[in-house]
Specification:
Shape: elongated
Oligomer: single chain
Strand order of the largest sheet: 3-4-7-6-5-8
Strand content: 25-35%
Helix content: 10-25%
Length: about 500
């Protein structure tokens, strides 16, 4: 009978080579079945391996949170919905106005449907025609806002200051009949004229229309975020060979410490990521699912400014176009730019080109560096026009597991967030209050604080709440994002 070697095959290889059988496999685990050349379960009984006790931080610090901590605040709420009111514009202006000639040189201007006519007789207005570039000024002689007027509610009668008709062929001014813009710039009254009388067309006493302050209401609803990590009692008592370390400083040879910590860190990232990415669920009403919430990207897309195809590499002109648009909004002087890496580098190049103070194209003063110092082209802040900008990389847009590996039209290249606070009307307090443009509201009361809850259940790890031979670590938060004055935000998207 043939001899079966006790320790495996003794047939030599025909050539000198490294084989799996030359090595012991510890990662198969003691007690496991013997595979080809793995030595079975001999490892645990025979040899000490050369094991690195520390994990390699392959991706560095992997956490993504921190954006909201930089730009906003967190405040409690006690309802299923947060509602805020934003002030509308101060001055009286209308777009999409239609026009036609009335008797003589007077004209009838019809406001767009759905708007409220608050233009008074004797108001002086500017009429702009975006299609032709023509404009005219005139005085309002009648307005449908008055109950006694023969005009429709949305119609005003205007006598132009130029002695020609506004519409039609020459000798008319030649304004187009649709898409006009008008705005009130003042009024013009005769000597001794009063504003106390009732409406009387063509009379001396023309009662002015009282303009009530207007506002627009917005709302958002919180999301309930949850996560859980479960480890059985036996594995809790098992010690590994590799010392684990986490981003929050936890370390040890118990693997569940690593898993529990990563679950917590992942959940904390989700708290921020959901505030950025969340959207309303359009089918929630019919499908019976949760309604969702409005995150940062959705708020800017819906109520703010989306700049598609912007690249700082094209030069300062494209960026100046953004500033001109901000001039038409709130003109917030201080703003923060949270950018992906390539866009941030393009900004540095753009600003460096501007700073070139001599033929070599290199300047030192803008960076507060001397010529002997290393040239710093990493701008953290700059001023353009009347605006100050503070620039930083946003890790969320660089991480390959989130937005960092996305290119083209789906890529988010950065956001412009106004710094400081805005004024909003608080319905509970009944007064105007100041709030950060961007802030988080979380559910909390005297009975329960749901900002960031964690608790342990089971019968292991010090918990004795059930007969389950495991430790269940639970995480929960209920929150939403409030994006106020979104018209001052800019979302940079790819092409």
């Amino acid at each position: 009978m043939s001899l079966i070697p006790q320790f495996g095959s003794i047939i030599p290889s025909q050539q000198k080579e490294l084989l799996n059988s030359n090595y012991l496999q510890f990662n198969n685990g003691a007690g496991g079945p013997a595979g080809p050349g793995d030595g079975g379960d001999s490892f645990a009984q025979q040899y000490l391996p050369e094991v690195y006790e520390q994990e390699v931080e392959r991706y560095g610090n992997r956490t993504l949170s921190g954006f909201l901590r930089m730009v906003g605040a967190e405040m409690p709420m006690t309802s299923d919905q947060v509602i805020w009111s934003e002030q509308n514009r101060l001055h009286i202006a209308y777009d999409g106005v239609a026009g036609g000639n009335a008797a003589g040189t007077t004209a009838d201007l019809t406001l767009a449907a759905g708007v409220t006519n608050v233009i008074s007789i004797n108001d002086t207005i500017v009429i702009l025609d975006p299609a032709t570039g023509l404009e005219s000024k005139g005085i309002v002689t009648d307005s449908g806002a008055y109950a006694g007027s023969a005009l429709g509610a949305q119609v005003i009668n205007v006598q132009p200051f130029s002695d020609v008709a506004l519409f039609g062929v020459a000798p008319a001014l030649g304004l187009t009949t649709t898409g006009l813009k008008i705005f009130v710039y003042g009024s013009d009254y005769q000597k001794g004229q009063s504003t106390d009388g009732a409406f009387a067309a063509g009379g001396q006493n023309q009662k002015r229309i009282s303009v009530e302050p207007s506002f627009t209401q917005y709302s958002n609803s919180p999301l309930i975020l949850r996560s859980q990590y479960v480890v059985n009692g036996s594995d809790m008592a098992q010690i590994g060979w590799v010392e684990v370390a986490t981003e929050d400083g936890t370390s040890g040879y118990l693997w569940y410490l690593k898993a529990e910590s990563e679950t917590r860190l992942r959940f904390e990232d989700y708290l921020e990521m959901s505030m950025v990415e969340a959207e309303y669920n359009q089918v929630a009403a019919t499908a019976g699912v949760n309604p969702g919430s409005e995150g940062l990207f959705a708020a800017i897309t819906s109520r703010g400014n989306v700049q598609s195809g912007f690249t700082a590499a094209a030069g300062i002109d494209d960026f100046d176009d953004i500033l001109k648009n901000l001039d038409t909004q709130g003109a917030i002087e201080e703003n923060m730019l949270f950018l992906q890496r390539q866009t941030s580098l393009d900004f540095d190049d753009m600003l460096a080109n501007i700073s070139g103070g001599f033929a070599g194209g290199t300047a030192f003063g803008l960076f507060e560096n001397s010529e002997e110092m290393a040239l710093n082209l990493g701008f953290s802040g700059f001023r353009r026009g009347s605006y100050d900008f503070y620039k930083t990389d946003w890790k969320y847009l660089n991480d390959a597991s989130t937005r960092g590996a996305v290119t083209g039209i789906n890529s988010i290249e950065g956001v412009l967030v106004p710094a400081g606070t805005s004024t909003v009307y608080d319905q509970i307090l009944g007064t105007n209050i100041r709030r950060p443009f961007l802030h988080v509201r979380y559910r909390a009361s005297q009975a329960d604080d749901r900002r960031m809850k964690s608790w342990v259940t089971g019968s292991a790890g010090g918990a004795f709440t059930s007969t389950l031979d495991a430790m269940e670590i639970n995480f929960l938060s209920e929150r939403c994002l409030v994006t106020q004055a979104a018209n001052n935000f800019v979302l940079f998207k790819g092409v």
